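Dear Dr. K.,

Following up on our conversation at the group meeting, I've run the structure prediction for Diaminobutyrate--2-oxoglutarate transaminase from Egicoccus halophilus. I'm pasting the input sequence below exactly as I used it, so you can double-check it against your construct before we proceed with anything downstream. Let me know if the numbering doesn't match what you have in your notebook.
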Amino acid sequence: MNLIIDRHESQVRSYCRSWPATFERARGSQVWDTEGRRYLDFFAGAGALNYGHNDPAMRQAVVDYLLADHVVHSLDTYTPAKERFLARFVEVVLAPRGMGAFKVQFPGPTGTNAVEAAMKLARKVTGRDRVIGFTNAFHGMTVGSLAVSGNLGKRGGAGIMLGAGTNLPYDGYFGPDVDTVGYLDSLLEDTGSGLDKPAAVIVETVQAEGGLHTASMTWLRDLQAVCRRHDVLLIVDDIQAGCGRTGTFFSFEPAGVTPDIVTLSKSLSGFGLPMALTLFRPELDVWEPGEHNGTFRGHNPAFVTATEALRFWEDDTLTREVDRKAAMIAQTLDRLAVAHPVLEVERRGRGMVQGLACAEGFATRICAAAFELGLILETSGPRDEVVKLLPALTISDEDLDEGLELLVRAVVAAVPATAPATAATATQPA
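The predicted structure tokens came back this morning:
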């Protein structure tokens, strides 16, 4: 408990209620509180710290930049920091993926700014107002983003009717045998369906906040085909699943699709500094100068660290590491599912955003037990029903092994004494 913060900060704060410690220092995947206690971080700033805390190269780059009295705040004026970032981003990320001609918009510092810009642009391009979202989706906390999000609690916080958004069933929502893309296709084809032709469809390949539901590659390809057939723009929200979280830089790469618009934020700056992008095909760049702007769309320290972070994408080394560590995570989660049937566990996600969907109440208990053991985890899903693992992509094998063992111990602590699994069965090392 922090008396000063508790007295003065709004009741809206949330994470500190799950983790009642005052965090003071951090390095890599380790965090220390003011009492000197060490924690392993399997939260990574809600996906904003894919490269861990205080990466030395990024830290040195931004320190050098600040000490040289370079420009920090610049709106959308020219700066060398922006120039270097854009040149490097095109060279390392966009061009090798056949997206070298894509335009880059800096809409403001957060993910929801990127989503709002994407939908606003889609509406301007098409002259249509509706955007299709999906069940359990989460795209941000501003009104437009909430209109295409699925969580009723978050949607209700808007306090007004959320219009111009329609949520349809995500892949697997009705089970494996129902073709939800075919359902969307039928609605768009039928003039009697009551569904107005939308400007765009917005989708996450992994619903990181919505319970770790994961779209299949076939479903994503089919979704792109339906959008193209009906002249509807496809927006992929890669804010949490992108920047390598699923292995490749963009989470949609394994499907072989190329969205019309992509949103990025979270780990884009690499260092936890606010930064967001909206990427789109060049023919969609119909903005008038100043038509969509924001005071903090030129945060140069973020450009500096983002440029340094791109070193991780010069080759496929990090992708291969993510794949290897993802297999380690999956092995442990699968073992837990077998060992604790009372939890009604299902492993979800892919890459290094995976988790355990549990019977009601267990996920929160597991995360609380994990914190007591020194492991920082959060829940996911509309009912907080998923234990979500989000470690840094660069986590060492030693820290990953230790964190997974702490997770096993937390699950054992949260399971009722009458559960059929024994602690000995459940605590085999990963």
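Two things stood out to me. Confidence is low (pLDDT under 50) at residues 418-430. The chain has 15 helices and 15 strands.

Best regards,
J.T.
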